[in-house]
Amino acid sequence: MSGHTHPPLIVRITLHLAVYAGALTMVLPVAWIVSTSLKSHHDAISAVPTLLPAGPPSEWQWHNYAQAWTIAQFGDFYRNSLLVAAVVTVLSVAYNALAGFAFAKMRFRGRNLAFGLMLATMLLPFQVYFIFAYVLCGWLGYVDHLQALIVPFLASAFGIFYMRQSIITVPDSLLDAGRIDGLSDFELFWHIVVPLVRPALGALAIFTFMASWNNFFWPLIVIDSTDNFTLPLAVNRLTSDYFTPSPPIRMAAAIILIIPTVGVYLIFERSFVKGLTLTGVKG
Amino acid sequence: MNSRSSGSSWHGWVFIGFPLTIILVFTALPTVVGVALSFFEWGGGDRPRFIALDNYQAAMTRDPQLWLAMRNTLVFAIGTVPVTVVLAFLVAVALHARWFVGKTLARTLFFLPTVMSIVAVGFIWQWMLNPRTGLLNVIVAGQGADLPDWLGDSWLGLGTMMFVQVWRNLGFCVVLYVAALGRVPRSMYDAASVDGAGSWRATWHITWPAVRPMTAFLVITGTIWALQVFDLDVVMNGWNPQRFNDLLNTHIFREFKNGRLGYSATIGVFVLVLTAMITYAQLRWLRLSKATAV
After folding, report:
1. Nearest C-alpha of chain B: how many angstroms from A59?
2. Per mean pLDDT, which range of B85-99, B106-120, B128-142, B276-290 is the poorest?
3. N or C end: fewer C-beta atoms under 10 angstroms in chain B?
4. Strand pairing of B49-50 and B40-41?
5. What residue ranges of chain A have pLDDT lower than 70?
């Protein structure tokens, strides 16, 4: 739509309706489980579902959340998930930024080979490498420990590539001036580059946190004992045959699971979307 | 690039050494070993036994479930990727228009499913489509009517998974398309309005070709993701029993869990080759149509 001439009113109204119908399709299912999570068991499975829980908000079943939390012992799993996501986010953003800086602004032997090798790994499908990655984690003693969810994620090819693309826009003249002042490479990185690429660092931190928090396939493979479950594994268990609490409790558990990522997304929406669109894809 | 970098000419390795090691050890090395493993029989414990092409022969001749899963996975990719990309383009065009009210709100809502854990997505849709209490059945048919089993082990169950895949990926494509549309120069449209082209025609003849690189990116990455889909199948259907609507990666995971590491690597190699072939064909096709366009 060029925007030079507006399409007729009727077309504009129709398009708004179509787009918001789509948006509603995105939100309605989520709203529906929020509503279910605040109902009594009886109301939730009633043959005549109501959109809102019965009674005024003060009478809604808020205690479903407390119950979900205690029944599923979410405290422990929340701690596991937060620990993993926090360590992975802080360390991998740091390592990726340092490597991105080296690839963007330093000259050294084997740089292009290393960069090409790293980029190529982005194309490898996990179906082939998860098997031996699992065996490797077994040999290292990581299987069924949180290290298995941390160590392999301490750096990522995507993260390094993303930081390199951002850091390459920092003018060389600034770095040269710093060198004349006698700054080391690390000081150049810390005092000149980091302040200039802070938005990219923030976006990468958000991506990394979400990816780590939502990771499901790999924890499903490497974590066996319940003590070391992350939150997605714990919530997933609530559907299994031997332990299925009532629907409102399960829905409350699902909400507890998505609150951190949805919260982070809504708070940092702007930088998140901006970061997403800076990944170097031209359109 | 600056030529008088301090330190030795190996100095950069201090910065990339550790991250590169992590990536090579946990991704590149296991890929190479994984391909090698496909020629062995191995349960993970004792020494792997070299069996040459036996795994491949077994896959070709004695594993009908593999071909069922292969068919489903292809149907899944073909049925979701084009729909997602075209819908996302149309939504993005509307969101990009100057007259659209509530751009940020709509974009935020579309993106919401993308940030949610797949486990929660599974819960949401199992509850929405529940044959007794699901909201959808109430909306569509009122109560008492007989409705199909949306989550059954059938073509319909596969279709439901495809719908959920579109649902959770649409927002990602919308956001990237909106960004791409913002980079289309205004001057391209000026020429068109001189010719009297209306909005619909401008969209089709100018906007769509102008965002072709983004379309290519979304089609190729979308196909790769669709061929690798696994979590969705597991949270909606579980992984244990072999099913009519099985997907390739669920099949791989099942073989892996049953201790057949070599054989699961073999199917992994199938996926690797399939992905490479499809990506190559798409790149060829895109380059070809680009050369003949305009």
Report:
1. 22
2. B128-142
3. C
4. antiparallel
5. 1-5, 47-48, 240-244, 278-283
**Which among B224, B255, B267 is positioned nearest to B35, based on CA atoms?**
B267
Q: Is B124 on the interface with A (CB under 8 A)?
A: yes
Chain A residues close to B39, C-beta within 8 Å: none
A73-237 CATH choice from 3.40.50.10610, 3.30.70.660, 1.20.120.50, 1.10.3720.10: 1.10.3720.10
Q: What is the CATH number assigned to the segment(s) B65-292?
A: 1.10.3720.10
pLDDT of B6: 45
Q: What is the ipTM of this complex?
A: 0.86
Q: At B189, which amino acid appears?
A: Y
> What local confidence, expressed as pLDDT, does residue A249 receive?
87
Q: Are B174 and B96 in contact (CB under 8 A)?
A: no
Least CB–CB distance from B20: residue in A45, A114, A283: A114
Does the pLDDT of residue B110 top 50, yes or no? Answer: yes
Structure confidence at residue B289 (pLDDT): 63
Please indicate if any CB of chain A lies within 8 Å of the CB of B292.
Answer: no
- How distant, in Å, are the alpha carbons of A157, B173, B182, B225 from that of B219? 21, 10, 20, 10
* CA–CA dist B195, A102 (Å, integer): 51
Residues of A in contact with B256 (CB under 8 A): 130-131, 221
The answer, for B86 touching chain A at a CB cutoff of 8 Å, is: no
Q: Are B63 and A169 in contact (CB under 8 A)?
A: no
- The answer to whether A151 faces chain B, any CB pair under 8 Å, is yes
d(CA A282, CA B209): 13
pLDDT at B4 over 50: no
According to CATH, where is 1.10.3720.10 located in chain A? 73-237
Contact between B96 and B178 under an 8 Å Cβ cutoff? The reply is yes
Distances in Å between the Cα of A103 and the Cα atoms of A94, A159, A168 are 14, 12, 9
Counted residue by residue, chain A has a size of: 283
- Among A5, A155, A184, beta carbon nearest to B193: A5
Query: What would the 3-class secondary structure string for chain B be?
Result: CCCCCCCCCCCCHHHHHHHHHHHHHHHHHHHHHHHHHCCEECCCCCCCEECCCHHHHHHHHCCHHHHHHHHHHHHHHHHHHHHHHHHHHHHHHHHHCCCCCCHHHHHHHHHHHHHCCHHHHHHHHHHHCCCCCCHHHHHHHCCCCCCCCCCCCCHHHHHHHHHHHHHHHHHHHHHHHHHHHHCCCCHHHHHHHHCCCCHHHHHHHHHHHHCHHHHHHHHHHHHHHHHCCCHHHHHHHCCCCCCCCCCHHHHHHHHHHCCCHHHHHHHHHHHHHHHHHHHHHHHHHHHHHHHHCC
